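<context>
A single protein, sequence plus fold
<sample>
Here is the protein in question:
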Amino acid sequence: MLKMRAGRPCAFAWSALIGALISTSWPPPLLPTLIGTAAIFLVALATYVYNDVMDLEFDKLSHRERPLVSGVVSKRQALNMTVASAIGAIVLSVSLNLGAFFLALAGLVLAYAYSTPPFNFKDRFLLKHVATALGVAISNFLGGVAVGGLRPTVLYGGGIFFILSMVLAALADMGDMDSDLAAGRRTLPIVMGPVFTVRLAAVVVVSLSAVTALTFHVFGFNNLFPILVGAICFGSMRLLQQLHQHRSDTRYCQRMVKKLYLLHLILQASLVIGAY
């Protein structure tokens, strides 16, 4: 199960690593960087495995390849992995500092609220996207706190990670509209429509490029940074244009979102280049 569910936790760990790299002078201290990254990986792993447990009945209809549904992993084993991952995250974060501990704890509380009644953020309009994006921002902040603290570069990174993760989550829901409708979930593409969702993403991308060009010096980035962000935003706008044209094709939407997600990872890496 770890092999099949490690992909998304790795993305959160990547955000933590970026936070560590932009929070201090080069090179960052190796051990705190690795511990902070590992702590967030375990928080995210606990989140996704626990969500699989809570979504077991629903996944029997739409995700039969998942280990819990196929019977490769039992529900008890999955819960044991959730608890072990959560405990590991707490132990690692405590070994860093108090700030890292509270951020890891916040991530675990958010994971519980995301999948557990009566909260069930995943089934509530906009809260699903906010919760996911907040998890990415927490990852970035924990990486920063683990090494050098919440410098302006880290605050900027957490802010744009939050906003872009919300947008990517909404775009990803365009590829899951059928299953979300069957489950009664109110996602942005369902409530406001795919056209609105793509246009909102385009506004966010253009705004990101403009705001970065105006404020990069304030946050301590170098002159190369706005150029990198502008190029990534241009590529994102090209993909959004294609997504808009093929918005009714579920598989095409999923492919485009994967490409947009790759650009998001490149944007995160550009913060490291811009911070030095």
Notes: The chain has a mean pLDDT of 89. The chain has two domains: 1-150, 151-276.
